[in-house]
Amino acid sequence: MDSVTVRVPAKVNLQLAVGPLRDDGYHDLVNVFHAVSIFDEVTAVAETGMSVRVEGESADQVPENDDNLAIQAAVALARHAGRSYGVSLAIRKAIPVAGGMAGGSADAAAALVACNELWGLGLPVEDLMEIAADLGSDVPFALLGGTAVGTGRGERLTPLEVGGRFHWVLALADGGLSTAKVYGECDRVRAEGGEQVAAPRTSEALLAALRAGDAKALGAELANDLEPAALSLRGSLARTLDAGRAHGALGSLVSGSGPTCAFLAESEAHAAALAAALTEAGVARDVLTAHGPVPGPTVV
């Protein structure tokens, strides 16, 4: 096989509960991931060395060297297999860069699937999940897709039952937000306010809304403990969130560490109308519609 192309979705966080800062610098999380229909494509071509090139959405902000998480995934897979392999990776971006939608993690997951296929390794998904967890907290879910709750750093996953399709509007912001800076700001804001941070817990009401396919109930339960920190670092996001609520979103939140804002709509038609209203309001660089859940990486 000379080349393999894998399509991989973005994610939004339906609930992101952040526990106290741990001694190792991480936080215990309850992270309800939901894969949505915005896709990157990663094409792997057999080569003697390791290389990556990037095109598409904000491609100039993505490293084309060893700092690229997709290349790190390919290197880790070759090391796991105990062989010297080479690959040229071509990434076509549609997922926002540094937008809180796990675009880099998605590309790493796609690289694992593509290289496993290209190199004929035949490794089971359990092995790929183990490698994914070492690459980053969001990579295991990017490999899984669908909807799942993650605990620990977010890498220990339990798939969730979802009773229907949900429709989303995603408001993209100019520039990204550093995940590390947002977590640091979260810790700072909590310490400044003297907040006693409890261990994170999954919202049972949110899980029930997912099972029932009840968009209105789900909208009421969307929650992100990082949102105050993201708003502190990027105050303009408050105007975006307010605009979505004013135009009838069932629920809204900053996705992950931001700065993308996610709005839940009643239907596909409502999502289109809400996207048009947000575009008219001028509160985002771009506005996209999507649905979820969708499957994880798929060979195309």
List key phrases describing it:
300 residues, alpha+beta, Alpha-Beta Plaits, 2 domains, eight-stranded mixed beta sheet, 10 helices, globular
What's a quick, concise take on this entry?
The chain has 300 residues and is of the alpha+beta class. 36% of the residues lie in helices and 30% in strands. The protein has 2 domains: 3-160, 2-Layer Sandwich (Ribosomal Protein S5, domain 2), CATH 3.30.230; 166-292, GHMP kinase, C-terminal domain (Alpha-Beta Plaits).
What does this structure look like?
With 300 residues, the protein is an alpha+beta fold. It has 2 domains: 3-160, 2-Layer Sandwich (Ribosomal Protein S5, domain 2), CATH 3.30.230; 166-292, Alpha-Beta Plaits, CATH 3.30.70. The chain is built from 10 helices and 12 strands. It has helices at 69-81, 103-118, 125-135, 139-144, 179-192, 204-212, 215-221, 227-233, 237-246, 268-281, and strands at residues 3-21, 27-46, 50-56, 87-93, 147-151, 156-159, 166-172, 223-224, 251-254, 261-265, 286-292, 298-299. The strands form 2 sheets. Strands 1, 2, 3, 4, 5, 6, 8 and 12 form an 8-stranded mixed β-sheet that branches. Strand 9 and strand 10 form a beta hairpin. Helix 1 (69-81) packs across helix 3 (125-135) and helix 5 packs across helix 8 (227-233). The protein is globular, with a radius of gyration of 19 Å.
Chart the SSEs and their pairings.
Layout: E1 3-21, E2 27-46, E3 50-56, H1 69-81, E4 87-93, H2 103-118, H3 125-135, H4 139-144, E5 147-151, E6 156-159, E7 166-172, H5 179-192, H6 204-212, H7 215-221, E8 223-224, H8 227-233, H9 237-246, E9 251-254, E10 261-265, H10 268-281, E11 286-292, E12 298-299
Parallel strand pairs: 1-8, 3-4
Antiparallel strand pairs: 1-2, 1-12, 2-4, 2-5, 5-6, 7-10, 7-11, 9-10
Helix pairs in contact: 1-2, 1-3, 5-8, 6-7
GO biological process, one term: isopentenyl diphosphate biosynthetic process, methylerythritol 4-phosphate pathway
Function: Catalyzes the phosphorylation of the position 2 hydroxy group of 4-diphosphocytidyl-2C-methyl-D-erythritol.
Family: Belongs to the GHMP kinase family. IspE subfamily.
